[in-house]
Design a protein that fits this description.
Layout lengths: L28 H25 L3 E8 L5 H8 L8 E5 L5 H4 L5 H4 L8 E5 L8 H4 L5 H5 L1 H14 L2 E9 L2 H13 L9 H7 L2 H15 L6 E5 L3 H18 L11 H15 L1
Parallel strand pairs: 1-3, 1-4, 2-3, 4-5
The structure holds adenosine monophosphate (AMP) and magnesium ion.
Length: about 280
């Protein structure tokens, strides 16, 4: 699998990343879907282990332009995983109460506890993206946030969290196509928000804001990945592969046996045999 991690040093230009990239899987959509299914199964087992071991925490951050596929990624990558084992936190326009606190207040509450996987559908990064693009706070305020975010994520990591951040990379043509689909297909109408077309006018500003965020906050303890996302099947495959690999690297194991397991075994055998 190609490495889509954003380097922790140096700048990045999103134009250098091809949203149509399909790595080595050229023409192999079906193969990719089969592999995804295997990854789904591996993820299911790893999630159970994570929960049982009750030691590590996994935080997944999903960001991307409108229609980039944040919802679809969650649906497909976590297909088959025990719904009790995964939580999704979606960050919308902050409420008045949230705005009265610092921007990380609502975020910290949603971070994973031991044994949990939490997926952020949008995140604290909105506070250096939409907030920056629309001047919702002065520049002096958002400029300091990259540092806050690095410190915040570092703290989470030092306290046992594995943090993976995915930027779902599509281009403007693909976005137009997806908006069109939302308008043309009745079951997708609910997803169409005319305001999104206004937002599209700020494409360049968003790309610049994303480049800055990715460049300043891709860290060894919380790397960013730029995921080619024009092809949904490839997007799902790459995200799933990164998550599975990171979980495997944790070298988790089921907790030590219950004491006196042999005694319980014997007693249970007696109980079941006496019924026979
Ligand atoms: P959606 O993801 O389509 O449900 O839309 C959620 C909306 O909330 C997006 O337009 C985001 O830009 C917006 N949003 C999320 N977080 C913030 C924030 N901190 N400040 C302003 N808008 C936000
Ligand atoms: Mg939307």
């Amino acid at each position: 699998m190609k490495d889509y991690r954003v380097p922790t040093k140096g700048g990045i230009k999103l134009d250098d990343y091809d949203p149509n990239d399909v790595g080595e899987y050229e023409g192999g959509k079906q193969t990719a879907k089969d592999i995804l299914q295997e990854l789904n199964e591996e993820l299911e087992a790893l999630q159970e282990l994570l929960y049982a071991e009750h030691k590590h925490k996994l935080l997944i951050v999903l960001q991307g332009m409108d229609t980039s596929g944040k919802d679809g990624t969650i649906r497909h990558v976590f297909e088959g995983v025990n719904p009790q084992g995964v939580k999704v936190a979606s960050f919308k326009v902050p409420t008045p109460v949230e705005l009265d606190h610092d921007y990380l207040w609502r975020v910290h509450q949603k971070t994973p506890a031991k044994g949990e996987i939490v997926i952020f559908n949008r995140s604290h990064y909105e506070d250096v993206l939409v907030v920056r693009v629309h001047n919702l706070v002065p520049k002096e305020t958002w400029q300091k946030r990259y540092r806050h975010i690095n410190e915040f994520e570092r703290r989470l990591a030092e306290e046992g969290a594995t943090i993976l951040k995915f930027y779902l990379h599509i281009n403007q043509d693909e976005q137009a196509q997806r908006f069109l689909e939302r308008v043309e297909k009745p079951h997708k109408h609910w997803k169409f928000n005319p305001g999104d077309l206004e937002e599209r006018k700020y494409w360049k500003d968003y790309q610049r804001a994303y480049e800055d965020a990715l460049k300043r906050t891709s860290k060894t303890w919380a790397p960013w990945y730029v995921i080619p996302a024009n092809h949904k099947w490839y997007r799902n495959l790459v995200v799933a592969a990164v998550i599975v690999e990171s979980l495997k690297n944790l070298k988790m194991s089921y907790p030590a046996d219950v004491e006196d397991l042999e005694t319980y075994h014997k007693r249970l055998l007696e109980m079941t045999l006496s019924k026979a």
